[in-house]
Specification:
single chain, 455 residues, 6-stranded mixed β-sheet, 14 helices, binds guanosine-5'-diphosphate, ribosome binding, ribosome biogenesis
Length: 455
Amino acid sequence: AEDESLISGAFHEGGRETGPKAVGVLAVVGRPNVGKSTLVNRILGRRAAVVEDTPGVTRDRVSYDAEWAGTDFKLVDTGGWEADVEGIESSIANQAEIAVQMADAVVLVVDGLVGMTASDERIVRMLRKSGKPVTLAVNKVDSQANEYLAADFWKLGMGEPYSVSAMHGRGVGDLLDAALDKLKKAEKTSGLLTPSHLRRVALVGRPNVGKSSLLNRLAGEDRAVVNDLAGTTRDPVDEIVAVDGEDWLFIDTAGIKRRLHKLSGAEYYSTLRTQAALERSELALVLFDVSQPISDQDLKVMSQAVDAGRAVVLVFNKWDALDEFGRQRVERLWATEFDRVTWAQRVNLSAKTGWHTNRLAKAMRTALDSWDKRVPTGKLNSFLGQLQAAHPHPLRGGKQPRILFATQASNRPPRFVIFATGFLEHGYRRYIERSLREEFGFEGSPIQISVKIRE
Ligand code: GDP
Ligand code: GDP
């Protein structure tokens, strides 16, 4: 029997770190119902759906590790992104735009049975502006007899239309050959792959908590915040910002400054954008506006960061706006709403006045040190041995579940695997996590513990 369970910080495998061999990031875009998800599943060999089975992980996957003919690449899947959004034309373009910004090359999917539509043309215009290489897939060409359907799409001006049937796999190999050829030659601008000596930071929080104010404060200049969407696809996505004399790579600052949330489909896109930024970051600065009540959306963003397995610093912004009564209200909130992240550091500051912004860097370094940390196997086992001797697991059906052996399987964030003779109940797992934290630190980082049962 094998029992895998997570204590804190569920996270998934893809997206965080890119295998050394991945040649680039390929996004699959197109209007709804053309068959993007079907195509992505076909390319991934349906591995994708399985990864989502972790309880408590309820969010959209953004990127996957994929492989074709010996070439490893990242696949950005936008199928399903529009699921929550009511058919707003412009939001389709937004969705595609986010995907394209994250990618080095693009597969544009159109529907051969339906023919060319105004939405297809809208997406094509955006793709042209992005300057990224595009391979055109005409889907739902399920048989040789329907090949003629593809020819019409030469008119889109995106080069040769590749006719495919995502459903049956027809033509998908040729499409991938062409797309990967372009991807290999493409300029790598996605940032997903950029190896950088700088630590990668995502500034996240619901709209109006002060993300762009804090970014401007840290960058030491007041930049124009608002840009219109058109023509901004080439904005720098990431920015190097010095905090306390050290350079950090702030991820997706264009998204922060551009205020996508003012557009339709607002909350949904900010969630998506947050997810994309988290995937590429190592550390999340989660901002809260303490002059307002803490909302579900605030807590959701925080959970996104923890579930993504990122190091976390909680930033309580707009401290300047609090009076004594307000400060008491905040402390009550702290005691009640933040029990999921008692391990995280909290920095009270004011982006507006700059008060305490000099405290950020230290908290950021501490969190990343914890996130990077490795506990040697010998130390870990002697610690767990002592812990078990002092507080054995309660009897279950007359038997005493025992820990046999443990090891830290990985870091970033720290992930432990414990081998035990029987099921370890929830309370005992919490106790192990608390004790590990007390003994070894891990301030500012989620940790994950899986238990494997060996009879
Ligand atoms: P998405 O919204 O672009 O992700 O589209 P989906 O992958 O969800 O597919 C939309 C619909 O088109 C579904 O009913 C699919 O079964 C269907 N579909 C997808 N690929 C093909 C194909 O190659 N041939 C045919 N005939 N139908 C397909
Ligand atoms: P974003 O949507 O998260 O990027 O938030 P903004 O940076 O645009 O800030 C939203 C509003 O909050 C603006 O009116 C800011 O001037 C204001 N604001 C940001 N930081 C502070 C702060 O520390 N104190 C106060 N009083 N207002 C702030």
